[in-house]
Design goal:
With about 525 residues, the chain is an alpha/beta fold. It folds into three domains: about 70 residues, no CATH class; about 260 residues, Type I PLP-dependent aspartate aminotransferase-like (Major domain) (Aspartate Aminotransferase, domain 2), CATH 3.40.640.10; about 130 residues, Alpha-Beta Complex (Aspartate Aminotransferase, domain 1). The protein is built from 17 helices and 14 strands. The chain has a seven-stranded mixed sheet with strand order 1-7-6-5-4-2-3, with helices on both faces. A three-stranded antiparallel sheet has the order 12-14-13. A two-stranded antiparallel sheet has the order 8-9. The protein is globular and about 75 Å long.
């Protein structure tokens, strides 16, 4: 079945077939022309597939089986945290009060949802070690953009126009992309021999034109930068903000907090660290946590709670209940930041919005289903459970690394930096390419024939023939052993006949594609006959 040529749903069925029949209209009929502008009305009925329900179900089930998925196999995609998604969370998110909540529901009639969001903000604030949270961003990259917009607002509020954002050469690809999208200039920082930021390079490039340093800790090499306090001092010393990319938060939950390291802004990937089905474009959620000095610029509306414990979405008219901000006392002069001159005050997880806010980041309040699943995960595990999850993720990664060394894999795939790792590690396939004639891509494709999704390949860019492996905490010892055995078997096979891996995969619905041709000449539309 998997070798059958795939067809679209439009190529199935026959005229007159139906999977569903609408009930008779039980409200007065209204002419669409009376409701919609003429240019929005269709001239012709849309061409829709005409299929029966069995055809419809089988079509999409077949397509789903052509993909590799986490429910059927190990998915060690580095920096993607493909951990198991507990079914309990799916059941909770599917409850009618969550799944059928309309986004335009009046806040007065959505108190349960708002309370869940409020409690999630409180939990994320504690995990990050920062007092203020916005749930609006829809993904990690969206959280990055929010962080840089907040940074711009912060500097402009002080009468400064800064142009540069520092990013390490190990940074996730979204970091430099987001910097450019936000209108800043990317300045790359070198990596030292230990896999952390080169402090001399940072000192040389940190000046008063730098708006922010975007940093992942642990970084994409799976290493915690022990110089983080010194890095924060250098960045803050030139008046810049320190931004934490939360992509690798799964390594440190309950163990260390970005706010305690000196970070001003943090984004979370709820769909990664807090167990959501993700990949293929969504849905995701990238909330941000910020320090006190960044809070006045948070996006609107903010979630607030009044003295009676009622929740609301405040787009400029109210003040959230909570402790007064800790701001050093000084005279408010004409030179003071706009926020102080206007009397804007901030409180825990809520701000009185005003002209300082960067405004809305999206329609409505975020991907609510992701909030439900993340909150269910946090409640299920508790503080000790989150810490245990991170410790187990680190243990699994180091166990797998040790098993690969036992198999002699390090001869061809040595660890790029260091001797141990946190939640993930990066191997270099340079020796494998030179001695066996096998590229990292060949190894990745051959792993599919062994029933494993390949790790991330060719990233980070500073590692030759990089292979980034993140096993997560939800995989068993037996699975990790089987993966290590598969890597070793592929290398032994390549020593005898490298052509086998070079032509892999053999068991997938589609054989190896010409990725260069696909990128240069993508087929993105299909003409209907």
């Amino acid at each position: 079945m998997q070798r059958e040529a795939a067809v679209t749903i439009f190529e199935r069925g026959a005229p007159g077939r139906r999977a569903f029949q609408c009930p008779d209209l039980d409200v007065p009929a209204v002419d669409p022309a009376a409701l919609l502008p003429a240019h929005l009305l269709r001239a012709h009925e849309p061409r829709l597939p005409e299929v029966s329900e069995p055809e419809l179900v089988r079509h999409y089930v077949r397509l789903s089986k052509r993909n590799f998925d986490l429910d059927s196999g190990f998915y060690p995609l580095g920096s993607c945290t493909m951990k198991h998604n507990p079914r309990l969370h799916e059941r909770v998110a599917a409850l009618p009060g969550h799944a059928r909540l309309h986004p335009l529901q009046d806040p007065e009639r959505a108190q349960g949802a708002l309370e869940l969001m409020w409690n999630l903000q409180q939990a994320l604030a504690e995990i990050a070690g920062l007092p203020h949270v916005s749930l609006q961003p829809s993904a990690g990259s969206h959280g990055e953009l929010a962080g840089l917009l907040l940074t711009r607002a912060y500097h402009e509020d002080r009468g400064q126009t800064r142009h540069k954002v520092l990013t390490p050469d190990t940074a996730h690809g979204t970091n430099p992309a987001t910097v450019t999208m936000a209108g800043f200039q990317v300045v790359a920082l070198a990596t030292n021999p230990d896999g952390g930021i080169d402090l001399d390079d940072l000192r040389a490039k940190a000046d008063e034109d730098v708006a922010c340093l975007m940093l992942t800790n642990p970084n994409t090499l799976g290493l915690f930068d022990a110089n983080i306090v010194q890095i924060a001092e250098i960045v803050h010393g030139v008046g810049a903000t320190l931004y934490y990319d939360g992509a690798n938060l799964n390594a440190v939950m309950g163990l260390s907090r970005p706010g305690d390291m000196g970070f001003d802004i943090v984004h979370f990937n709820l769909h990664k660290s807090f167990t959501q089905p993700h990949g293929g474009g969504g849905p995701g959620s990238g909330p941000i946590a910020v320090s006190q000095r960044i809070a006045p610029y948070l996006p609107l509306p903010v979630l607030v709670r009044d003295a009676d414990g009622r929740f609301d979405l405040d787009d400029g008219g109210g003040v959230a209940e909570g402790p007064e901000p800790q701001i050093a006392e000084r005279a408010v002069t004409a030179e003071a930041p706009i926020g102080e001159r206007m009397g804007i005050v901030a409180s825990r997880n809520g701000t009185r919005p005003g002209s300082q806010s960067i405004g809305r980041l999206r329609g409505f309040q975020g991907n609510y289903g992701c909030f439900v699943r993340a909150y269910a995960y946090i409640c299920s595990l508790g503080a000790d459970g989150l810490k245990d999850a991170s410790e187990t993720a680190v243990l699994n990664a180091n166990y797998l690394l040790a098993r690969l060394r036992q198999h002699g894999v390090a001869e061809y795939l040595p660890l790029a930096y260091g001797q141990l790792c946190l939640h993930e590690f990066v191997l270099s396939g340079g020796p494998m390419k030179r001695e066996l004639g096998l590229k990292t891509l060949d190894l990745a494709k051959r792993l599919l024939d062994h029933g494993f999704h390949p790790p991330t390949v060719y990233f980070p860019l500073l590692v030759e023939e990089a292979l980034m492996v993140e096993p997560t905490e939800t995989e068993t010892r037996e699975t990790l052993d089987a993966f290590a055995d598969a890597i070793a078997a592929i290398l032994r096979e390549a020593a005898e006949d490298p052509e086998i891996a070079r032509n892999a995969p053999y068991t997938t619905p589609v054989r190896r594609l010409d990725e260069v041709a696909a990128a240069k000449n993508p087929v993105i539309r299909q003409e209907l006959k």
